[in-house]
Every structure is written in structure tokens, then in C-alpha cells.
């Protein structure tokens, strides 16, 4: 039986049973796994979010915290109630949609200098940023997801610990290149130190909890916990044995700082944050608790109970079916007893109310867009809060990826490109009237074909196409049309005077196809002029 002194839980946790506190070692000064005070304070808010992120299985395994026994509830009945409990994925669904909206367009690389070019090496690098074939878009989605859930997440930039290659060709043949490690969850950053108390003082030490897998025998393996300690230009790993923690390995890096890049969704301080969707996580758990109550109530009492008056309960068992009848004494009777439907409806109404609350919090307008007609100002105002939040998260994610790419460039002594995340969060496409207006501007010579195609692409009319390649293809089609028009005509030599004023065939930035279009247009015009002279 449950403890009769236990009070009914109010909120997420039962009375006196809050989020479990991480265990601390006796000697924090010599313990690399020691949890800082800031970590301990943040960990209280991680538990509800962790429960929602890990889902139903975690909710059931920690039912003593999230779905405690009722006063005087039988233990077996409580276990049955727990086995039927389901945690709806409201929080994770919201996070997935928010990240999908932020990164719905590819991350692009641009030269930091306006007239420069991006080294082709970086195109290969962003296609596999972690050495496991993960593209920068996929890595960014995981990083943003972790950041939104817990408040911040980090990326570690590392380089293979080998002897330096004699030249670039050997380095590439050996596959020696920087790679990203992560996302590193906020819960894995155990502690850190700054140079002094100044808010702008650089971080001088970071301790990261991680697990490594080592082979055992020809087929087995074991998972070992270790603490990675990072400092400017150096690193150390510690493992715990029978005599406590001891240094396992150490090394140096070619960088002056710590190659750790952090992105925030709700920053409080350096490596300190709070989960921005904590209220939704708490409502998500409360919804699961009420769903468990409703499901259990339906399981126990939804079916009516047969009541017999004047029946000898010592007689044989009763067989109930459409083909059988009950023989009762004259003063007896039979009826069914069932609970009032309003009892279940009130539970369902409360659950619907919780769902509405979650829909109206945080990133609500991203997930409950109205289908009815709205004015542009109305749509813009309804998205202000969520868009501003996503804009901030997107900007910080872009800065984090830029820092990581810059560190990779420092490892290689290469100029890193500029990382650009498209922050167009408006899902509204161009209307037919707007498309016609842009086409009219192009036909009147007010905008170029490149501008027209870019606007159609940004307005979700065109797919993700290469604008330059598309313009080049259109030019080639024009050339083919001119070939047909010029078929059978004698070649006409073009004199230098036929070139447009101020233009030469060596002008930079003009493709060969465009030069050919101009040349053939001039040739066609010259041919038409000669025909007119012969006619006169």
C-alpha cells in the first residue's frame, strides 16, 4: 500500500519529491566531475524537459516522480495505471517544427570579402562536418534542437591527433581535417572557470562529461565514462578507477583559445541559460497525468455494472448473452449502473484546455496558423512574438556555426567563408498578382532576369534552383533559336565598330553565352540591314 501520510501532489512533482539532485563527490577540489553551483541551479529546470524529450518510456520509468501513487492506492493498481500512461509528444513536436522552419532553406557559404571566392575545400567540408557524413544542415538541426530544449548547446572543434602532414596533398590523402563534435548538451558541461569576475573575461577551463566505447576481446565492448578538461591550447581526460579519478591522457592544440562554440536560445550568462519552453514542458506532463487518470477511469468504470435484486449470489455463475435470460423472483429485478457521462467529459474538457494553453504559449503561431482570410498586418502581428524568438535563436545559431568554421580554418590556416542562415520565416508565398507585377517590371527593363528569378525563388514560387545556371540555360536556348534564324546565311565578319560602346569582348563578369548572344544579335541585325539595301 502507498504511504498514507503522503499528500496529493500539486504540480509536476509529488510532495517532497522534486527533481533528483546530482550526486557530489567528497573532495570537489580534486574531483573533475564536480558539478558547479550554476549547473546545479540549471538542472532543476532540465528534468521536465528531459521527460518530454525522452517520451513515454522515461515517463513510465520515473512514474514515482511524474505519476505518483494516490493516497491509499493499491500498489498493483498503481502499476496498472502507470503501464497505460502515455506522454503526448507536444513539446518535441513544437521544437521540431520550429527548427524545421528556421532551417527550411539550405545554409549557404559566402566569401567574407565582397569580390572574393569560397575555397572549394569548404564545399566538401560542410557536406561532412563531423567525419560521419553529417551535413552542416543536419548538424545545425540537432544543435538547434538541443539548444531550444535546454537553453544552450555547444560544438567542439577538434583535429586528429597525429603528426603534421608534410604537405596539403598528404594531409588530404590521410583525411586529416578538422571535425565537429556534438551537439554537446548543457547537462554534459559540468563546470567552467573564467579569467576573473569580469563579464567579458574569457573562459579558461571547461569540463565536459562524455562516454567512450572501448573494445573488449574479439567481439565485445565496454562504455567508459571520462571527463574532458579543456583549457587554452591544451586538453586532459580523467577516468575513475578504484582509487578515484586520475588523469588518463593529455595533449595540446595549435589554438590559443578553447575550441568550444556555444549557441543559446535563452541566455542568462556565459554557459548559463534556462529552457525557453519549460512552461510548455510542465503543461505537457500535466496533460499526461490527466490523460492517465482519464484512461484509468474509463478502463475501470466505463462499462456498466449489472445489478440483480433478489438473486442468490451463492448460485452458479451467470452467463450473459443475447440468447440467455435471467429468472428472478417476483420481488427481484435487474438493471445496469454506470457513471454519469459528465464525469468523463469534465476530464476531457480539462485536457482540451491544457492543449489550448500549450498552443497559446511559446511558439504558438507557428503551429496554429489560421486558414481563414487575414490581412497582412493581422498575420504579421500574430507572428511577432514567435518570429522574434526564432530570429534570435537563428542569429545565435549562425554565430555559433561561424565560430566553428573559423576555428576549423585556424586549424588549416585557411580563410574561412561566411556562414549564412536564411532568416525568412514567412511561409506566405507570392500571390499571382505579385508575380505578374514582377514580370511586368522585368519586361519593362526595370529589373534584370536574375532579380526576377531571385524574387520568385524567395517567394516560394521557384524551387531551390541555381539562378546563374538557369540564366545560362535561357541564354543557350536563345542561341539555338538564333541558329535557326541564321540558318543558310553567309558568315558576316564583325568589325570592332560593331561592338557596343564601352564594351569589349574581354569584359570581365560577362559569360561566353551572353557574349555570343550579343554577337549573333548584331549579326542578325547586320544581315537584315543588307537585305533592305539590296531591296532598294
In short:
The chain is α+β, with helices and mostly antiparallel strands and 536 residues long.
Question: What does this protein structure show overall?
Answer:
- It is a single chain.
- A hairpin with a 2-residue loop joins strand 6 and strand 7.
- The chain has helices at 37-54, 56-61, 63-66, 75-84, 90-102, 120-127, 136-150, 168-173, 278-301, 341-359, 376-382, 384-412, 432-443, 449-458, 467-485, 512-535, and strands spanning 108-110, 152-158, 179-185, 189-194, 203-216, 220-231, 234-241, 244-252, 260-264, 267-269, 272-273, 305-309, 333-337, 418-420.
- Helix 5 (90-102) crosses helix 7 (136-150).
- It is of the alpha+beta class.
- It is flat.
Attribute tags:
536 residues, disordered N terminus, three-stranded antiparallel β-sheet, five-stranded antiparallel β-sheet, alpha+beta
Amino acid at each position: 500500500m502507498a504511504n498514507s501520510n503522503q499528500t496529493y501532489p500539486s504540480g509536476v512533482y509529488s510532495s517532497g519529491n522534486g527533481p533528483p539532485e546530482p550526486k557530489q563527490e567528497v573532495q570537489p577540489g580534486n574531483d573533475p566531475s564536480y558539478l558547479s553551483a550554476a549547473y546545479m541551479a540549471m538542472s532543476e529546470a532540465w528534468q521536465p524537459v528531459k521527460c518530454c524529450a525522452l517520451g513515454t518510456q522515461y515517463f513510465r520509468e520515473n512514474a514515482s516522480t511524474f505519476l505518483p501513487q494516490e493516497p491509499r492506492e493499491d500498489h498493483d493498481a498503481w502499476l496498472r495505471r502507470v503501464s497505460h500512461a502515455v506522454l503526448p509528444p507536444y513539446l518535441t513536436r513544437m521544437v521540431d517544427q520550429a527548427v524545421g522552419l528556421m532551417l527550411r532553406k539550405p545554409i549557404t557559404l559566402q566569401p567574407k570579402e565582397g569580390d572574393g571566392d569560397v575555397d572549394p575545400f569548404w564545399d566538401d567540408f560542410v557536406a561532412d562536418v563531423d567525419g560521419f557524413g553529417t551535413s552542416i544542415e543536419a548538424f545545425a538541426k540537432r544543435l538547434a534542437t538541443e539548444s531550444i530544449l535546454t537553453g544552450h548547446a555547444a560544438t567542439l572543434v577538434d583535429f586528429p591527433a597525429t603528426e603534421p602532414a608534410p604537405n596539403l596533398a598528404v594531409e588530404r590523402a590521410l583525411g586529416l581535417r578538422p571535425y565537429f563534435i556534438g551537439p554537446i548538451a548543457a547537462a554534459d558541461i559540468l563546470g567552467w572557470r573564467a579569467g576573473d569576475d569580469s563579464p567579458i573575461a574569457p573562459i579558461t577551463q571547461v569540463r565536459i562529461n562524455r562516454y567512450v566505447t572501448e573494445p573488449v576481446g574479439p567481439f565485445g565492448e565496454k562504455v567508459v565514462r571520462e571527463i574532458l578538461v579543456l583549457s587554452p591550447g591544451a586538453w586532459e581526460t580523467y577516468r575513475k578507477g578504484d582509487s578515484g579519478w586520475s588523469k588518463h591522457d593529455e595533449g595540446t592544440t595549435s589554438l590559443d583559445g578553447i575550441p568550444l562554440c556555444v549557441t543559446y536560445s535563452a541566455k542568462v550568462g556565459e554557459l548559463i541559460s534556462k529552457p525557453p519552453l519549460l512552461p510548455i514542458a510542465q503543461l505537457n506532463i500535466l496533460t499526461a497525468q490527466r490523460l492517465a487518470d482519464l484512461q484509468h477511469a474509463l478502463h475501470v468504470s466505463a462499462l456498466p455494472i449489472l445489478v440483480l435484486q433478489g438473486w442468490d449470489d451463492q448460485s452458479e455463475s451467470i452467463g450473459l448473452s443475447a440468447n440467455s435470460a435471467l429468472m428472478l423472483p417476483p420481488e427481484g429485478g435487474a438493471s445496469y449502473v454506470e457513471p454519469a457521462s459528465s464525469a468523463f467529459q469534465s476530464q476531457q474538457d480539462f485536457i482540451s484546455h491544457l492543449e489550448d494553453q500549450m498552443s497559446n504559449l511559446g511558439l504558438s503561431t507557428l503551429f496554429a496558423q489560421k486558414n481563414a482570410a487575414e490581412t497582412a498586418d493581422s498575420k504579421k502581428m500574430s507572428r511577432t512574438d514567435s518570429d522574434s524568438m526564432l530570429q534570435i535563436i537563428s542569429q545565435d545559431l549562425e554565430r555559433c556555426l561561424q565560430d566553428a568554421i573559423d576555428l576549423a580554418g585556424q586549424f588549416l590556416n585557411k580563410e574561412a567563408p561566411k556562414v549564412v542562415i536564411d532568416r525568412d520565416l514567412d511561409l506566405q508565398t507570392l500571390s499571382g498578382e505579385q508575380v505578374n507585377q514582377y514580370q511586368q517590371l522585368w519586361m519593362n527593363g526595370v529589373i534584370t532576369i536574375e532579380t526576377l528569378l531571385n524574387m520568385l525563388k524567395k517567394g516560394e514560387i521557384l524551387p531551390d534552383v541555381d539562378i546563374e545556371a538557369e540564366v545560362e540555360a535561357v541564354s543557350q536556348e536563345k542561341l539555338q533559336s538564333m541558329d535557326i534564324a541564321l540558318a543558310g546565311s553567309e558568315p558576316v565578319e564583325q568589325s570592332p565598330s560593331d561592338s557596343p560602346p564601352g564594351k569589349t569582348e574581354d569584359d570581365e563578369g560577362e559569360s561566353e553565352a551572353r557574349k555570343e548572344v550579343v554577337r549573333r544579335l548584331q549579326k542578325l541585325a547586320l544581315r537584315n540591314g543588307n537585305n533592305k539595301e539590296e531591296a532598294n
